[in-house]
Design a protein that fits this description.
Length: about 900
C-alpha cells in the first residue's frame, strides 16, 4: 500500500466500548474511556492509533494467555499532529494474543463542525433548563466523523476497512435527549440531575459511521409499511424544540424510501430503527451515519408557508441519497478512500432513482442533466481534473475528493452503465454485490463482477477507462450525404489538447437516432478513435438521445442550426444536452458564442422549466465573462428578455392552488431573470412589493418563492435599503431557508461602498468579538463569498480583502479544511484575465496550500479557460449582438 499513509497492523480491533462523562457545557470539555477489544497479530512494544486534539491520560492493556491474563500500563504517549496519530509506548513487548486496550482520555467539544462539536442556534420554543446558552445562542451537540474525524472525538483505528462493533454510552443532563446509531438500551441516574444513556451494540461498521448527539430534541414519528423481523420499522425526525412539525415532509419520504430500497436490493434494511436529525451547523448537506443520519437544516426541514418550494425536491432527494448509503456504503463499504466515488456516485444515482419513483411528475432526470451532469462535465473538462478512482494518501487528500467528480461524474457513469445494461439488470447486479459482501469492505472490481454476472456483459472492459482515466471525450461529427464520421478525443475546456492529453479511447455508447430505415434509438457504440455510421437520415439525426452517456457532441454549425428548428423532434433531455454542449464548446473554442446564441434563440417558444434553465445558465456564463463591456452586457440582457418573453407572458405573479411543481419553479426563475435583466414591468411590480413588505412584513408577506426575485430587484435598484432589510431578515431568520436566501441576494450588491464597508466585514468578522448579528457563520461563508465572487463589481474588492486579511480568514475557517477548500473554490474561480491568474499564483506561492492544493489548481484552470474564452470571442460576440439587433 505504498500510495497510502495507513496505520501499522500490529493490533486488529474487533469491538469498542466507549463511555463519555463529565460533559462540561461551559468550558466545552469532556472525559472518555474507550475499551478496544481485539487481537495483537504481531508482537510489538507500541500501539499506534488515530487521535487528534485529544489528551490521552492512561493506557492499560490486558493480554489473555490461556486462562490467565496479564496487564500492562503506560502513560508514555507520543503525538504526531500532522499524521493525526498517537503512539502508546510500553516497556515490554506485547505478545500475539487476544487483548483489551483501555484508554482514559479528555477531549474538547469544538465549534469546527468536525468530530464531536457544538452548533449554535436560536430556540424556536423555550428550551430545557440545562441547555447550554450564552447571551446570543443556545447550543446542541452532535458528531461529524466522515471522513477522518472520529479521531477528534475518541482514540481509534480510523480507517474505513478497520471495521468493528461499538457500544456507546454518554452522561447527559436528565432533561435532554441523547441519540446514537442504535436504540437506547438503558438509562441510569448518575449525579446532580444527570443520567448515563447506553445504546445497543452496533453491527460491524467503519469508525466514520459512528454517531451521537445530545440536545433539547423532540421528534415526529412514522413507520414503514413493510415489516422487518416481524415489526414495522420506526422512523423519526428529530429537531431542537419547536421545529419538529417542519420534519413532516422528510418523514413522509423516509419510510417509503426504506421500503423501496429493501425491495429493489432484495435485502431488508439492516437496523432496528432509522433516525434523522436536523443539525443547526453543518458542513455538507447530510451525513449517512448508520441509523442516525444528520442533516443541514435546509436539507431536512420544510415549512409549508415559509419555505422555497425547491426545498421540497432537495429534501426528497437528500433523504433518498442518505438512505441508499445505509446499504451501499454502510453495509458494504469501500476498501479505501480512493474509491469514495463508489459510495457517493452510487448514492447520488440511487437517490434520484428513488425520488423519480415517488415523484414521476417532477421529471428529475432532466433536472439531473441540467444541474448534476453539466456540473460534472464542466469540472472534468479541466486539465487539473482527476480520475473517478483517485490516489488518496492521507486525511487532507481525502477531503478534497468529496467533489463533483466523485458525486456527479460518478453518478453520470453509473447512469450510463445502468442505461446500457437496463436499470432492473443493474439493480440485480447491485443486489448480488451487497449480498456477497455484507458487513465488510469491497473494491470496485467486486461490483463490476456482480454486474457482469447479472448482465452477461464484460463490464470491466467497458468501464475501466471511465473510472481510471481522467476526463471524457468530445465527439466531433463530419457529415457526408447519407453518412457521418464520428471522432472521439479528450475534451479540455481550455481547448489546448496536446497529444499526451489524448491517449484514452473510451467505450462511447451513442444512443443514435436517425438511421434511414429505422424508427427509435439504436444502441450503437464507438470503441475506436474514429468510426463511420452509414444510412443516416440527412434531414435529422441525434447522438446521445436523451443524454444517457457522459460526453459532449460537436455537431457541424449548420446541423446545430437545423436542430434549433426541429425542437418538436427533440426530448426535454435532448434540448438540455445540446444546449449544454454548445455552451461548453463555445467556451473551449471548439464552437463559438454566436453558434450557441443562434441555437438558444430557437428556444424562445419553450416553456419547460429545465430546458429554459439550461439556456439561462448558459447565457449567465457568457454574461459573467463578457459583461465588462457595456454594449455586450446590454445586448445579452436584451437577448435574455426576448428569449423568455413568451414564457414570462404566461406565468404572472400568483401561485394557483394545486399547481404542478415545475410550473412554480418556472415562475420564480422567469421573474428572477426578468428582474435581473431590467424588465420594466417586473421591476415596477417587484419594487412595489418590496416597499410594502419592508414597511410592514407581517401585513405584506411575500410568497416564499417570490423572495429571491423581489429582493434581487430591490438590491439592483435600492441597495442601501435592501442591504439593511436583508441583514435584519438574515439574523431573524423567519424561515429555515431565510439565511440562504438573504446571503444569496446580498452577494449581488453592486454598490462599492456597501460591499467594502458592510458586506466584507459581515462576511469575515470573527465572532466573538463581533456580535452574532454581524458575522456570517463559517459553514455559510461560501453562500455570500460565492455571490460576491460572481459579481463583477464585488470580485476585485473580495480579492483585495482576501490578500490583505488572509490570517483573519484562516482564523475564521481554518479549523475545518473542508470549509477552506470550499471557500477557495467559490471565491477565486470567476476571474477572467491572465493578470488575475498571475496574482492568484503569486499570492499562494508562499502559503501552505496542502488542504486545498487540488482545488487551487482546478480554480486556476477555470480562470485560464475564462481568460482564453474572453480574448477569443469578445469581438465576434459583440458583433453578433449588434448585427442581430440586440445591441
Amino acid at each position: 500500500m505504498g500510495d497510502r499513509n495507513i496505520l501499522p497492523d500490529y493490533f486488529k480491533a474487533g469491538h469498542y466500548d466507549l463511555v463519555l462523562t463529565d460533559l462540561d457545557l461551559k468550558n466545552w470539555t469532556y472525559k472518555g474511556v474507550v475499551t478496544i477489544t481485539g487481537d495483537f497479530v504481531k508482537p510489538s512494544k507500541e500501539i499506534v492509533l488515530n487521535a487528534l486534539e485529544l489528551t490521552l491520560k492512561t493506557a492499560k492493556v490486558e493480554v489473555e494467555s490461556g486462562k490467565a491474563s496479564t496487564s500492562y500500563s503506560s502513560s508514555n504517549f507520543q503525538y504526531d499532529e500532522k499524521a493525526q496519530r498517537a503512539t502508546i509506548l510500553f516497556d515490554v513487548e506485547l505478545p500475539v494474543s487476544k487483548a483489551k486496550v483501555t484508554l482514559d482520555f479528555e477531549g474538547a467539544i469544538n465549534h469546527k463542525m468536525a468530530g464531536f462539536y457544538r452548533s449554535q442556534y436560536k430556540p424556536a420554543a423555550p428550551a430545557a433548563d440545562s441547555v447550554p446558552r450564552d447571551e446570543e445562542w443556545h447550543y446542541m451537540l452532535s458528531t461529524q466523523f466522515e471522513s477522518t474525524d472520529a479521531r477528534r472525538a475518541f482514540p481509534c483505528f480510523d480507517e474505513p476497512n478497520l471495521k468493528a462493533t461499538f457500544d456507546f454510552s454518554v452522561e447527559i443532563p436528565s432533561d435532554q435527549v441523547a441519540l446514537s446509531n442504535m436504540p437506547v438500551k438503558d438509562t441510569k441516574p448518575t449525579t446532580d440531575g444527570k443520567q448515563l444513556v447506553s445504546f445497543e451494540t452496533t453491527p460491524v461498521m467503519s469508525t466514520y459511521l459512528l454517531a451521537w448527539a445530545v440536545g433539547d430534541f423532540e421528534y415526529v414519528e412514522a413507520f414503514t409499511e413493510r415489516r422487518y423481523n416481524g415489526k414495522q420499522l420506526p422512523v423519526r425526525v428529530y429537531t431542537t424544540r419547536g421545529l419538529k412539525e417542519q420534519g413532516k415532509w422528510a418523514l413522509w419520504h423516509a419510510p417509503r424510501i426504506i421500503d423501496y430500497f429493501s425491495e429493489a436490493f432484495d435485502l431488508d434494511y439492516p437496523l432496528p430503527k432509522s433516525d434523522i436529525l436536523a443539525v443547526h451547523e453543518f458542513t455538507h448537506g447530510a451525513m449517512e451515519n448508520w441509523g442516525l443520519v444528520t442533516y443541514r437544516m435546509t436539507a431536512i426541514l420544510y415549512d409549508e408557508e415559509k419555505s422555497d418550494s425547491r426545498f421540497l425536491n432537495r429534501i426528497a432527494y437528500v433523504v433518498a441519497h442518505e438512505l441508499a448509503h445505509q446499504w451501499f456504503g454502510n453495509l458494504v463499504t469501500m476498501d479505501w478512500w480512493d474509491e469514495l466515488w463508489l459510495n457517493e456516485g452510487f448514492a447520488t444515482w440511487a437517490g434520484w432513482l428513488a425520488t423519480d419513483h415517488l415523484h414521476p411528475d417532477w421529471e428529475v432526470w432532466p433536472q439531473f442533466i441540467n444541474e448534476g451532469y453539466e456540473t460534472a462535465l464542466k469540472l472534468d473538462g479541466l486539465r487539473s481534473s482527476h480520475p473517478i478512482q483517485v490516489t488518496v494518501r492521507d486525511a487532507l487528500d481525502i477531503n478534497q475528493v468529496f467533489d463533483s467528480i466523485s458525486y456527479l461524474k460518478g453518478c453520470s457513469v453509473i447512469r450510463m452503465l445502468a442505461n446500457h445494461l437496463g436499470v432492473q439488470t443493474f439493480i440485480k447486479g447491485v443486489s448480488i454485490y451487497l449480498k456477497r459482501h455484507p458487513y465488510s469492505n469491497a473494491k470496485t472490481e467486486a461490483l463490476w463482477q456482480a454486474l457482469s454476472e447479472a448482465s452477461g456483459v464484460d463490464v470491466p472492459a467497458l468501464m475501466k477507462p471511465w473510472i481510471e482515466k481522467i476526463g471524457f471525450p468530445v465527439l466531433t461529427v463530419a457529415e457526408e450525404p447519407g453518412q457521418i464520421t464520428i471522432k472521439q478525443s479528450r475534451f479540455l475546456s481550455t481547448g489546448d489538447v496536446k497529444p499526451e492529453d489524448d491517449t484514452t479511447t473510451w467505450w462511447v455508447p451513442l444512443a443514435f437516432q436517425g438511421k434511414t430505415n429505422t424508427q427509435g434509438v439504436e444502441s450503437l457504440a464507438l470503441t475506436a478513435k474514429e468510426d463511420t455510421i452509414r444510412d443516416v437520415n440527412d434531414d435529422f439525426y441525434v447522438i446521445n438521445k436523451n443524454a444517457p452517456a457522459f460526453y459532449r457532441v460537436n455537431y457541424p454549425p449548420a446541423r446545430l442550426q437545423k436542430l434549433a428548428s426541429q425542437l418538436d423532434r427533440l426530448s426535454t433531455e435532448d434540448k438540455i444536452f445540446i444546449t449544454g454542449s454548445a455552451a461548453d464548446l463555445a467556451f473551449s473554442g471548439y464552437g463559438t458564442t454566436p453558434a450557441l446564441l443562434s441555437f438558444i434563440q430557437g428556444l424562445k417558444s419553450e416553456t419547460h422549466f429545465r430546458v429554459l434553465s439550461q439556456a439561462l445558465d448558459s447565457i449567465s456564463l457568457v454574461k459573467s465573462i463578457f459583461s465588462d463591456d457595456e454594449t455586450t452586457r446590454k445586448g445579452l440582457e436584451a437577448f435574455t428578455l426576448r428569449l423568455i418573453d413568451n414564457a414570462l407572458s404566461k406565468v404572472g405573479w400568483e401561485f394557483p392552488a394545486g399547481e404542478d411543481f415545475n410550473s412554480g419553479l418556472l415562475r420564480k426563475r422567469l421573474l428572477l431573470t426578468a428582474g435581473i435583466n431590467g424588465h420594466p414591468g417586473v421591476t415596477e411590480e417587484a419594487l412595489k412589493r418590496f416597499k410594502a413588505y419592508s414597511s410592514s412584513p407581517e401585513d405584506n408577506r411575500l410568497h416564499a418563492d417570490l423572495r429571491s426575485p423581489v429582493y434581487r430587484v430591490a438590491m439592483k435598484n435600492d441597495p442601501v435599503t435592501a442591504t439593511e432589510v436583508l441583514k435584519k431578515e438574515w439574523y431573524a431568520a423567519p424561515a429555515v431557508d431565510s439565511k440562504d436566501v438573504c446571503l444569496g441576494v446580498l452577494g449581488t450588491c453592486s454598490d462599492e461602498s456597501i460591499i467594502t464597508n458592510t458586506l466584507l466585514p459581515f462576511l469575515f468578522n470573527v465572532s466573538p468579538p463581533a456580535p452574532a448579528s454581524d458575522s456570517v457563520p463559517p459553514g455559510d461563508l461560501h453562500m455570500l463569498s460565492g455571490g460576491l465572487a460572481s459579481n463583477r463589481v464585488a470580485r476585485p474588492l473580495l480579492w483585495k480583502f482576501i490578500t490583505e486579511n488572509w490570517g483573519q480568514i484562516e482564523q475564521k475557517i481554518g479549523g475545518n479544511p473542508i470549509l477552506v477548500d470550499r471557500f477557495i473554490n467559490v471565491s477565486l474561480s470567476k476571474f477572467t484575465s491572465y493578470k488575475d491568474l498571475e496574482e492568484i499564483e503569486a499570492f499562494f506561492k508562499d502559503k501552505d496550500t496542502t488542504a486545498f492544493n487540488r482545488t487551487l489548481e482546478a480554480t486556476k484552470d477555470k480562470v485560464r479557460g475564462r481568460a482564453a474564452y474572453k480574448e477569443r470571442d469578445a469581438a465576434i460576440l459583440k458583433e453578433w449582438l449588434v448585427t442581430n439587433g440586440y445591441a
